[in-house]
């Protein structure tokens, strides 16, 4: 009888350790996603300043600036719980930002503008932070998904409704590159 109780206690202890490990991995994923959300917010907050700085120089490029604002609004309205929706909206925003920076080549006064240069540097820094955050997020998702799919954790994961998390994947391979903001 004593051996049975010791065995049951050991199994329960082992189950608690496994469960706590899965919780720890899930919290890491949530934390990594919130880091991405912070950088995405910083990026979208810079867009109006960038557009207003560029607007005076690029009077003939109104369509490009309108696309940037539309992409920003789409990125803001994306459901933060839906990783693929956020990724798609951010992909569109990155593409529209690339077009602004490509067009800025034709405006030498803009390239020399202090506000534009500061915004370019801030955006470049945020893009680097975003790339690092995406890598970290995907690593935590990989660890979490692995932990809930391996034996014996898979039994606890099914019992306590742990679900796989979605990777932050870019729709277009060119999106893996940071927005080029150097002149």
Biggest sheet, in brief?
none
Distance between the termini: 78 Å
Tally of separate helices: 6
What's the structural domain tally?
A: 1
CATH class: Mainly Alpha
Radius of gyration, Cα only, in angstroms?
A: 23 Å
- Helix and strand sequence: HHHHHH
Let me know the number of strands: 0
Strand fraction band? under 5%
What does the model show?
- With 183 residues, the protein is an all-alpha fold.
- It is rod-shaped and about 85 Å long.
- Helix content is 76%, strand content 0%.
- The chain has one domain: Up-down Bundle (de novo design (two linked rop proteins)).
List the keywords.
183 residues, mainly alpha, rod-shaped
Task: Offer a quick outline of the entry.
By secondary structure, this protein is mostly helical.
Furnish the topology, listing elements before pairings.
Blueprint: H1 2-55, H2 62-77, H3 83-103, H4 108-112, H5 114-149, H6 153-159
Helix pairs in contact: 1-2, 1-5, 2-3
């Amino acid at each position: 009888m004593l051996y049975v109780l010791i065995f049951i206690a050991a199994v329960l202890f082992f189950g608690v350790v496994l469960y706590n490990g899965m919780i720890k991995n899930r919290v890491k994923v949530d934390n990594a996603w919130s880091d991405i959300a912070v950088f995405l917010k910083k990026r979208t907050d810079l867009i109006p300043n960038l557009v207003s700085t560029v607007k005076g120089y690029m009077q003939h490029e109104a369509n490009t600036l309108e696309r940037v604002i539309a992409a920003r609004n789409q990125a803001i309205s994306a459901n933060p719980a839906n990783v693929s929706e956020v990724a798609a909206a951010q992909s569109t925003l990155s593409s529209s930002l690339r077009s602004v920076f490509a067009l800025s080549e034709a405006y030498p006064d803009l390239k020399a503008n202090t506000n534009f240069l500061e915004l370019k540097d801030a955006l470049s820094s945020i893009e680097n932070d975003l790339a690092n955050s995406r890598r970290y997020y995907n690593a935590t998702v990989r660890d979490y998904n692995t932990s809930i799919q391996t034996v014996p954790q898979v039994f606890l994961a099914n019992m306590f409704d742990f679900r796989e998390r979605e990777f932050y994947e870019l729709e277009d391979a060119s999106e893996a590159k940071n927005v080029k903001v150097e002149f």
